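Table S2 (text version). Query chain:
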Amino acid sequence: AEKVRALVTLRYGTGAGVAVQYGERERVSEAVRTAFFSDRIPKWLLDLSIDQLGDAAIVTTILSAESEPRALAEEEVLGHVDSALAEIAGSPVTRLGGAIVSWTDDPFARCIARAPIGDQRETVLREIKRPLADRVFFTGEHTDERPGPGGMDGAIRSGLRVVEDSCD
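Corresponding C-alpha cell output:
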C-alpha cells in the first residue's frame, strides 16, 4: 500500500519530441552547428544531419510544460522552428516535413520524466525503490535520487544499484 501511494504521488513532467526536415541542408547545418539555444520556442535545436544521407537537414528539439503541443497547435510549433532557423540562417528555409510526438498523450509513457518536488526525493523516491522482502527490487529512472529528472542515466544507475544491493 505504501509503494502504491508513493507511485501515485510522484510528479511527472510533460513533453513532446519534435523533428523537422529542411531542404537547405548546408545552410541549416551551418546555422545550427552542433546546437542552438534560445529563450523562445524552440528552446534548443540539434542538427541530426551529420550521419544522414541526402540533401535535407534534420533538426530536433523537445518541448515541455508550457510549450508542449497541448498548449500550441502542431503547425504553430513547426512555424516557430521555421522562424528560428530563418533568423539564424539569415534567410527563409524550406520545410519538407515535420512531426511532433507527445509522450504525455502516449497511453503507455504518459510523461517525459519524473520530476520530484519538495522532499519527494527523500520520501517518495526512497519508498518507490525500497525492495519487498529483499526479493523484489525496483529500478527505473523514477527510483534515482539525483537532482532533476532521472532520465536514461538514472535508469542505468538504478539497475546498477539493484545489482549491488541484491549481491550483498
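Notes on Table S2: Residues 22 and 95 are 5 Å apart (CA to CA). The mean pLDDT is 83.
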